[in-house]
Amino acid sequence: MSVAPRIATLVERLLGAPPPVRIRGWDGSVAGPPDAPVVVVRHPRALRRLLFRPGELGLARAWVAGELDVEGELYPALDVISGLVWNRPDGAATGGRDLLAAGRELLALAGPVPVPPPPPREEVRRRSGPLHSLRRDRQAISHHYDVGNDFYALVLGPSMVYSCAVFGSPKDSLETAQAAKLDLICRKLDLREGQRLLDVGCGWGALARHAAREYGARVVGITLSREQAEFAREQVAKEGLEDRVEIRVQDYRETDDGPFDAISSVGMAEHVGAARYREYASQLFGLLAEGGRLLNHQIARRPRKDETGYHVDPFIDAYVFPDGELAPVGRTVTLLERAGFEVRDLESLREHYALTLRNWVRNLEARWDEAVRLTSPGRARVWRLYMAASALSFERAHIGVNQILAVRPPASGASGLPLRTREWRPAAGERRELAA
Fold it and tell me: Polyketide synthase-like methyltransferase domain: from which residue to which, for each copy (predicted)?
């Protein structure tokens, strides 16, 4: 019997229903609905990976190695496959006998499997030190960010901003939306001439430069990525902002030169982890002056009924953000409050991140050969999968992203906020016109 029909039978046995995708086997055989997205199993090694690591990590290794692929557009196939993960069919195999039979069929298809295939080289191999120690966090950040500034420029575009943009309309360009996000953060923080801003996880320095250039702030940007810091310093020098912006390779736990009038943490807190989050919140609280504001921009997951801790995604942990952890937004708010902050505003930007990710995927696909040349075929495949899958996760409300504005309350209790919190100050350009 040809390969594809046997795989389709195996999938049906596991799901309790015919597979919702069309399957193409390494022998050229095809099975499944003719109009469905096509999943290609290029090599029996893909099935061997599933034998040794059943589930998401085995599938991810096969994808990164190029042994598993999708014909045509990625989103429709991912949408179907993700739906099966998020909403397991009622007829799916759960009993030991059904799973044992499926395992035997998988073994027969995979062929001889004396040893597991080695993971693709893009996978994190070794992690030194306790979870979220300084040394281990530096290794994790380096794995994700130190893959070449040219590669990131290809994906992110000229803004070099690696976080959720803010769109006025889905038709906005990515650059327009990222500029709007930077300005929104500065307005929420109520930045003014001469105030000190600490940008935690400053990336390639876009927010630090915007705050200094448009609002006259004096900015310290910290990152654990040496490649990011090098790029950010070059951009600061090009714009003549050396007297207002300092970029450091430094952990937030090593920063001790407060007080700051404002702190921004954009897309960084996901790296902190459950064990360190209270410490993170307390450290930022201690670095703020009384009445100072924190803008914490962070991805969140939906809470579960059997809530026990932070969630770690096997694929993301192995290939994208080692040791990254997502928590429900309610837990984040609670920990900020326990550190002493008064949380004053929370804005969800979930749909905005889906639009941002689709723009990044479009950039990557448009310059695919260059992306492969700058990194590796496996690295490019990692990024395409993680960004496309993340876009769908945001669209389906399985994860979200929120901007939390919090204040270190002064002794008087006066927050300095407007009576209606959302009445942020005018944008920088609008203020210049009013001043003129």
Answer: 151-409
Residue 432 to residue 214: CA distance in whole angstroms:
9
Burial class (CB in 10 A: 0-12, 13-18, 19+), 315: buried
- Residue spans of the domains in the chain: they are 3-110, 134-435
Please give the Cα distance from 131 to 324 (Å, whole number). 10
Q: What is the CATH topology of the domain spanning 134-435?
A: Rossmann fold (3.40.50)
* Residue 105 burial (CB count, 10 A): 17
**Cβ 315 vs Cβ 60: under 8 Å:** yes
| 359, containing H or E segment | helix 350-366
Residue 426 neighbours by CB distance under 10 Å: 11
Q: How far is CA 88 from CA 71, 397, 429, in A?
A: 24, 17, 50
Q: ∠ CA 417-419-420 to the nearest 5 degrees?
A: 95
CB 336 within 8 A of CB 281: yes
| Ordered mean pLDDT values, 10 residues apiece, the chain (436 residues) | 89 81 95 94 92 86 95 90 60 57 78 82 78 82 80 96 97 97 97 98 97 98 94 98 98 96 96 92 98 97 71 80 89 97 97 98 97 94 95 95 97 80 68 36
